[in-house]
């Protein structure tokens, strides 16, 4: 099972999105665990995850987060509209297109 972590400033919006994405992933039969965290807790929990999504409003932290997670685990920034509208299906499709290894 692939573990995906969504990070936003405080974790509230990311948590809501993660719940919606998890439902879509479960319904679609994807072996994916979607979790969320606020920026302050990211460094301590990131070792347990395989891939990462950043909320668009913290994309300025991308280089810092890349340095924390290393080169072997993928990271991407979620587009603004799907994030703001909590469109779990659209963000999951973005993840599957961006990280093709998660589709299996």
UniProtKB/TrEMBL annotation:
In this chain, where does the modification Phosphocysteine occur? 8
Name a GO molecular-function annotation. Answer: protein-N(PI)-phosphohistidine-sugar phosphotransferase activity
Q: Which residues form a coiled coil?
A: none
Q: Which Gene3D superfamilies match?
A: 3.40.50.2300
Q: What is its EC number?
A: 2.7.1.-
Keyword Transferase applies: yes
Q: Which SUPFAM superfamilies match?
A: PTS system IIB component-like
Which Pfam families does this UniProt record tie to the protein? PTS_IIB
Q: What class of enzyme is it?
A: transferase
What does the UniProt keyword field contain?
Kinase, Phosphoprotein, Phosphotransferase system, Sugar transport, Transferase, Transport
Q: Which GO terms describe its biological process?
A: phosphoenolpyruvate-dependent sugar phosphotransferase system
Q: Does the keyword Transport apply?
A: yes
All residue ranges annotated as the PTS EIIB type-3 domain in the record: 1-104
The molecule here is called: Lichenan-specific phosphotransferase enzyme IIB component
Organism equals: Cedecea neteri
Classification lineage: Bacteria, Pseudomonadati, Pseudomonadota, Gammaproteobacteria, Enterobacterales
């Amino acid at each position: 099972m692939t573990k995906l972590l969504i990070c936003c400033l405080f974790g509230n919006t990311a948590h809501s999105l993660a719940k919606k994405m998890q439902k879509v992933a479960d319904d679609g039969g994807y072996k994916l665990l979607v979790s969320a965290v606020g920026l302050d807790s990211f460094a301590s929990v990131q070792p347990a995850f395989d891939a990462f999504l950043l909320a668009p409003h913290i994309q300025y932290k991308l280089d810092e987060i890349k340095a924390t997670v290393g080169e072997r685990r993928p990271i991407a920034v979620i587009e603004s509209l799907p994030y703001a509208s909590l469109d779990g299906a659209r963000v999951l499709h973005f993840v599957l297109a961006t990280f093709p290894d998660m589709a299996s």
